[in-house]
Design brief:
The chain has about 180 residues and is α+β, with helices and mostly antiparallel strands. The protein has 3 helices and 9 strands. It comes from Pseudoxanthomonas kaohsiungensis.
Length: about 180
């Protein structure tokens, strides 16, 4: 009986922290309600043109003018029901003069300085240019992605608990 109790206690001690305790970005933790996120980020607003991810998560709050590596991003807080599932920082950058690549490299340097070398990196040029860097940070996944198509590129920094999906979640165009 003592061996059984010891085994159960050992199993409980070795369990990973629940996902609800994992910080996605700044003070935003996985599983927070929209009200909790709003309390942590009072400038965040409910978007009039909310986006939806491929998995059905809905953008419940948006925070403009977020500084990252000297560039201005928009933070989108995506919820699965009433639970925060993902935070995505997005920036549209012109391809002319390859400003988009400069943004991508600036953010890469900032993330490497903070989290070390990426766990994975890749580049694809067909059917459109796509670059990707991924980190594993305290039980969460962080992906930096550049999508180049047309006159501008989308640079996303994706914070989520599971591995970033392939293809990575992107903000759907909603006319805004």
């Amino acid at each position: 009986m003592n061996n059984f109790i010891a085994a159960v206690l050992l199993a409980l001690a070795l369990q990973a922290a629940p996902a609800g305790a994992q910080t996605l970005w700044k003070d935003a933790r996985y599983g927070m309600s929209p009200a909790e996120v709003q309390a942590r980020f009072p400038q965040a607003r409910v978007p009039g043109d909310a986006d939806e991810l491929a998995g059905g998560e809905i953008e419940g709050l948006r925070l403009q003018d977020v500084d990252l590596a000297g560039h201005r991003f928009t933070a989108a807080f995506f919820f699965d029901g009433d639970a925060l599932a993902q935070v995505t920082l997005s920036l549209r950058a012109p391809r002319e003069g390859r400003v988009d690549l400069q943004v991508f490299e600036d953010v890469t340097r900032a993330l490497v300085a903070r989290h070390g070398a990426p766990a994975h990196a890749g580049q694809q040029d067909e059917p459109f240019e796509r670059r990707r860097r991924e980190w594993e940070v305290d039980g969460t996944r962080l992906a930096l992605v550049l999508f180049a198509s047309g006159p501008e590129s989308l640079v996303n920094v994706i914070h989520q608990v599971g591995p970033p999906d392939a293809p990575p979640p992107v903000r759907l165009e909603s006319g805004g």
